[in-house]
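Morning!

This is the sequence you dropped in the shared folder:
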Amino acid sequence: MRSPALRHVLTHLITPLLMCIGMGLAYMGAFVTPEPHHLPVVVVGTAPRTKVFAQTVKDTAGDKLDVRTVATRADAVRLLESRDVTGAYVPSAKAPELLVATAASDMGATAVEKVFTPVAAEQGTPLKVTDVAAPVSDDPTGQGLFFLLVAVSIGSYASVAALGAAGAALAMRVRALLALGVSAVVGGIGALLAGPVFHLAHHDLAGVWGMAWLYSAGILLVGVGLHTFLKRWTTLAMMVLFVMLNFTSSGGLFRPELQNGFFGTLHAFWNGAGFVEGARSLLYFGNDGLARNVWTLAGWLLAGLLVTALAALYERTRRPLRQTAHPGTGTGTDATPAEPASREETEAEAEADAEEEAEEEIEETVGV
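The structure's back. Tokens below.
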């Protein structure tokens, strides 16, 4: 290609085009066709007729449902509150009842309601639906925590562009400390949005801030460390890790039982799922499962610290090589004065600096 400027533009178009492909594959693959996959439900009762009914439901649903029986309604409520099941059906000739927990997943509750409403209709009785863990009135669908995740994520990975590119001249330990400070601010913004602004959290706002800080710090440290190795490709890597794979596996819109096996598997250990499920545990389910989700976020934070440590080591090993390549830039009595650069060399260096600055500007723009 004869035009260097055109080649430069086309090279930078690779990133947004790959983002377009990746976002389409991730979002459409995760959200377009939600179907139950081994959705866990229980039927309440110990009578032989109840067990036969449960087996019939299981045989009819196939792989879509995992059906078992429990002895009492209280047992079913405990399973719902621990999010071990998505729905519980209480058979009755006069008033059958379906127990759900929409705070865990509004979509999951809708899915089990679609399963058992026809069952009750066959008996000629209306189905009573009881919500044992409803979200707050300010967040009737319970999906506000997912959009809080989106806001905190954008604040985190967009800050990576500034810290990585604009702060490249700073020592890695300074960038790491800035990342921790920025993550505290991002977590604070998240807490303000969840509390005073949109009232998603009616209590334990400090806990929401703590989890938002852990989540944001993990993203920022991973990103700042990766920037040392990936440079302008860091934005694409961050989008893959913390948007394409993260939002889709968080369980904020669809629980893993309503997704394919890939995203359902990621839900078990990805940081977005740790934040969303941890916030649900804190706000709606009496801290049940909170420790495991906090450990998930802590694990990502430790991974970020490891990446930044490796980046710091890499930068220290590269520094002597750069000084050797440009001996005239040294300091002290042994430094050799640099020879005056030719006009061509000066123009080449200026062009290279301008290109690098343009790459950093594009990276920041795309990142935001």
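Headline: The mean pLDDT is 87.

More detail when I'm at my desk.
O.
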